[in-house]
Write a structure and sequence with these properties.
11 strands; 303 residues; HSP40/DNAj peptide-binding domain; 9 helices; alpha+beta; Helix Hairpins; four-stranded mixed sheet
Length: 303
């Protein structure tokens, strides 16, 4: 039978501390646990291997014997007899926090022949009665929620279906495209009594308005005629929630911007606070002038 390098199995070196071994084991046990890989025979086999490695390296006495005899375990028969006699009186089971699989049992749950030769023929199933099963946090879920910009202009509630379970959530006004929120405890259930994972929701927001959004501010355009731009006056512009009248100063140039304070988008989780709306004036040049109007412009040009 072949020698098994338990340090290599857990990915640690021979000087690893007990905490190092525990951390490495828990990481690998979570990755390969049969409950998370129900149809993966290779993962099941890997899970058994790391359980066996942990059973040895997390127990100071077993680790000492393993380090002493290692590849020459055949020469440790006398030690083994004494060890087995001691086990018959005290029982078997280290304090490694073994993560046991509550599956169907049978021959595939036994330790390797190498382990049996070095420590005696112990069935892993015994760990279910005397071992200490580690608990693990459930996996996190990720989901996308697609909304229009106007959907997040006001705080509202919405019901999501995640893995067949309906979850009612409150969507605060001001959520941005690509923003991620966490719903604690709405992920996969924990293992062996561990806490549930979390649900992370990524918002995908489509701008279905005529405005450009930048954070809490909105940007839009407004057309004004040449005469209003030259002489001044009033114009009506659109905002995201209605129309407002603005005064236009005489001599307004094309591309002039004006700010409408508090007419932008709601500030996330700050009730009653809004960004600003910036309007850019586009001066509309008349294209169908009468002869009389052309003459008037000619006179203005000469004057």
């Amino acid at each position: 039978m072949a020698f098994i390098d338990y340090y290599k199995t857990l990915g640690v070196n021979k000087t690893a501390t007990g905490d190092d071994i525990k951390k490495a084991y828990r990481k690998l046990a979570r990755k390969y646990h049969p409950d998370l890989n129900p149809n993966d025979k290779e993962a099941h086999k890997k899970f058994q291997e790391i359980n066996e490695a942990n059973e040895v390296l997390s127990d100071p006495e077993k680790r000492k014997k393993y380090d002493t005899y290692g590849e020459h375990w055949q020469h440790g028969e006398e030690y083994e007899k004494a060890r087995q006699a001691q086990q018959s009186q005290q029982g078997f089971g280290g304090d490694g926090g073994g993560y046991t699989y509550s599956g169907g049992g049978g021959e595939d749950e036994r330790f390797s022949d190498f382990f049996s030769s070095l420590f005696g023929d112990m069935n892993r199933g015994q760990g279910r009665s005397g071992g200490r099963a580690a608990n693990f946090r459930g996996q996190d879920y990720n989901a996308e929620l697609r909304l229009n910009l106007m959907d997040v202009y006001a705080t509202h509630q919405q019901t999501l279906s995640v893995n067949g379970k309906n979850i009612r959530i409150t969507i605060p006004a001001g959520v941005e495209d690509g923003q991620v929120i966490k719903l604690k405890g709405h992920g996969a259930p924990g293992i062996n009594g561990g806490p549930a994972g979390d649900l992370y929701i990524t918002f995908v927001i489509t701008n279905n308005t005529a405005f450009k959004r930048a954070g809490n501010d909105l940007f839009g355009d407004a057309n004004i005629d040449l005469y209003t731009a030259v002489l001044g006056g009033e114009t009506t512009v659109d905002t995201i929630n209605g129309k407002v009248k603005l005064k236009v100063a005489a001599g307004t140039q094309n591309g002039t911007k004006t700010r409408l304070k508090g007419k932008g988008f709601p500030v996330y989780k700050k009730e009653g606070e809004f960004g600003d709306l910036y309007i850019t004036y586009n001066i509309k040049i008349p294209t169908s002038l009468t002869e009389e109007q052309k003459q008037l412009f000619t006179q203005l040009q000469k004057s």
